[in-house]
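Milestone M4 deliverable, item 7.
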Amino acid sequence: MLVVGITGASGSVYAERLLEHFLASGTDVALCLTPAACRVLRHELGWRVPEDPRDAAGVRAVLEQVFPPEGRVGRLVYYAPDDWGAPIASGSAVWEGMVVVPCSMGTAGRIAHGLSGNLLERAADVCLKERRPLVVVPRETPLSLIHLENLLSLARAGAVVLPAAPGFYHRPERLEDLVAFVVDRILRALGRSGGLVPPWEGGENER
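Output delivered:
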């Protein structure tokens, strides 16, 4: 199982595409949202999630619509941000790793300093202390010195800081191609074969 946390940073389409890939490929996912994530999901993707992610039944009903069970191979389990009894809050529970996508600078700062104010941040803290893969996908620009120092602290603690910065060498033609680039990088950071974007094999020499 992998944990996916979605925060209130812009770029929720990256999380949606990542979840689609995991569920279609047979990966079980534990999902956690923040209140700000719900607002962004409603605005950017049109998900009709409740404004309060503690309404677990309401969130699960929407997830059933966005990711229909007949289209899944992997399981999707939702935990409310105040569900401190969830397995992902404990280091004794075993899961493969975690992705925070997109990751707000507030969430990044709290994880970097061990300040777990909700289940998402606690699960990330568990990954760091248990030396499990943690991929943090910030989508913020420009970055202040405080942002940079917090991201540096995360990298020093063992997290992979993977900015949502798509490349263009694969000559993207659609928005989906740009999204796929970042999702592919997330998969590779988790030690999985992405396969969503062809690898760079060299270009023509120009002088």
